[in-house]
User: Fold this.
Amino acid sequence: MKIVCLDSATLGGADLSQFNEFGEFISYETTPKDKVVERLKGADVAMVNKVVLDENVLQNTNLKLILETATGVNNIAVEYAKEKNIIVKNVAGYSTKSVVQHTFALMFAFLNQTTFYNGWVKNGKWCESEIFTDFTQMLSDLNGKKHGIIGLGTIGKEVARISSAFGSKVCYYSTSGANNDASYEKISLEELLKTCDIISIHAPLNEKTKNLISYKELTLLKDEAILINVGRGGIINEQDLAKVLDERNFRVGLDVLENEPMLKNHPLLSVKNKNNLLITPHIAWASKESLKTLVQKVYENLKEWVENGK
Assistant:
């Protein structure tokens, strides 16, 4: 059997040596579009994260199995793969704890003013202080805040549980309309945006969530509200976000953008009040523990296919 991993760089240097036990295993750190078919020549199994396996690739290779090293399979022509009897296996639930933790890291960075005060101290301001503390920026408790969650799936529910433990009042908006969870108040998107102190997005990108939050929705946010997106880029219109950030006083924490890596000259790089914006490069999922779990589950997916053909 020949197994080819096309973008191992997206796995954070994880040890992939265990895949050698199934046959010939070849790994490339990255693969440009024009090299995909060539590198999959003679391969039975493709292992990919973000490399696109479209109909053209599937037509010109002889794959039997595609191992997606993530949950989303939007980089794969799944329906066409079914027509060609190519099995597609993804991994779900491997990064829930990591994404939840990053959600609160972004949230507390604003509530506790950690970025501001880290710079304040390192610039020597504490050395100049006449008292032992400082009130240039005021900290704020999560306790008593209204926390609106957009997308109450596995990750959203865990965020809701932890936020409630801190004393927040949790409500949610179901992007599919099908989610009804009696544990929390279900409200409209407009009410959530207007009334919540903290809003966190944990939804997939689809026809219902694309540009879900654009200029009109952003202008509904409360003064000093915190908006966090660890779901998918494209849910928030980034051009509109950059514009409204310069017009209003609210805070935004992003781990995902519509185009990744971030485009040069992105409008968010030019916002006036940079203290109101935190951006991390799609790392919420990528704790050491999550990466280890991910690789193990991909291994188990391959093992199951080898042993049971499914």
Summary: The radius of gyration is 22 Å. The first strand starts at residue 2 and ends at 5. The longest helix spans residues 288-308. The CA atoms of residues 65 and 305 lie 8 Å apart.
